[in-house]
Amino acid sequence: MSKLSQIYQTPLALLTDLYQLTMAQGYWKSGRSEQEAVFHLFFRKNPFQGGFTIAAGLEYVLDYLKQFRFTDCDVDYLASLEGNDGASLFSAEFLSYLTRLELRCDLDAVPEGTVVFPHEPLVRVRGPILQCQLLETALLNLVNYQSLIATKSARICAAAGSDPVLEFGLRRAQGIDGGLAASRAAYLGGCAATSNVLAGKLFQIPVKGTHAHSWVMSFDDELAAFEEYADAMPNNCVFLVDTYDTLDGVRNAIQVGLQLRKSGHEMVGIRLDSGDLAYLSIEARQLLDEAGLTNVAIVASNDLDEGIITSLKTQGATIAVWGVGTKLVTAYDQPALGGVYKLGAIQNETGHWERKLKLSEQAIKTSTPGILQVRRFFNSEGAMADMIYDELNPQPVSDIVVDPLDPTRRRLLSRDLEAKDLLIPVVRAGQIVKECETLTQIRQRVQQQLSQFHTSVRRHTTPHEYPVGLEQELHEFKTAEILRARHPHPM
């Protein structure tokens, strides 16, 4: 069963911006609703000033497409909308058309968990222009956020190294949707488990948790709180030790941990949630080891992110497990990925494809025309460069890659390099053709993908810029189109 249909009891065709529907009525009324078009979903900058992005959200996209339709209730609502003259915004004939609409689009996409870069299409949509237009907002919503969180998760997990990272962000997430999607994307990006029980059920993510300060505060003293918790949960004892005095809390946890051992159980860990985490973890580790509890893990939380984790490791912190919440699920330092969805080509009445280009005063916002594909090149050490090329180009793909923002930067790629196209068929004529993947498979792809890139590309600060560019013929065509559109006007 679709995950989205388990969360929502209705198809989500209205998960869109109003202007998609007003344009759809315009296409329908002008007789252009069936005109074939191609759109590309991409972003312009890596998040967090980083060197890469993890593509995520594709399985959500496929779930959304599987149940796409306009219900009678949807159409009744649209019929109630009025224009500024008080008349119905949408005609009854158009609304009737929507109730009969069946998706016939083709989608190509990079597999979920793929490492991607600015300007590369993550999803390519081809089909009747009205249908392509209706998909824009939902696709951006489903891909942008999960790609952002998966990338943040990958960065945090890289900072933690071999230590497991637990996602604890549900209470700070942006609503129910944000909480569920964040837990999924965080696990995909590398987190070992989540505190979010519903996400655990829906996505088969391992769930982990300790107890709150309120548990300790509800007892007369901390030791009694730990003893009662151990009695209730002898096989899941991770004690939160900083309710009052952290090191006293560690000593109380040790006392209960030794009692547990006598009864045939082992204390799993202690959690630090405040204070000088480096100092306290070192002191706590010494106390635990002296008591013979060398197997007890020290878990840390408290507004952690990749920068703080890196700093704590540099300070010699003896933390074995990292609980990360707010700064992960909210993507605290960059709360949005600037994904966009742009028209690349449209078929005219003769069946000929016309490439389309959006101009801008900012070079980074000028779109790339054509039906685009991404080719990744590899040598024996891993990924070397990515080339964006146009499948409409009748000429063989050249060996030269041109930086889209600085045409003077060019790279000649050896013909001996292994090459792989990233966009693969996922939907044909509205039907899913891609095999369903488990979240575990996608998670494994993330790690395999990251291993293909040099550490300089993956580092958190001032990363090396991985080479991505336009195939030479595409660059020349785009440049010519820009010049043609900007022909000099008399002054």
Describe this protein's structure.
InterPro entries: Aldolase_TIM (IPR013785), N/Namide_PRibTrfase (IPR041525), NAPRTase_C (IPR041619), NAPRTase_N (IPR040727), Nic_PRibTrfase-Fam (IPR007229), Nic_PRibTrfase_pncB (IPR006405), Nicotinate_pribotase-like_C (IPR036068). Residues 168-345 form the Nicotinate/nicotinamide phosphoribosyltransferase domain. With 491 residues, the chain is an alpha/beta fold. The protein has a domain at 218-316: Alpha-Beta Barrel (TIM Barrel). It has helices at 3-7, 18-29, 58-66, 72-80, 92-100, 129-160, 175-189, 197-203, 213-217, 222-232, 246-262, 277-290, 306-314, 326-329, 439-450, 455-458, 472-485, and strands at residues 36-43, 53-54, 106-109, 115-116, 123-128, 165-167, 193-194, 238-240, 269-272, 297-300, 321-324, 339-347, 353-355, 372-379, 382-390, 400-402, 410-412, 418-421, 424-428, 431-432, 468-471. The strands form four sheets. A seven-stranded antiparallel β-sheet has the order 13-12-1-5-3-19-20. Strand 19 (424-428) and strand 20 form a beta hairpin. The mean pLDDT is 96.
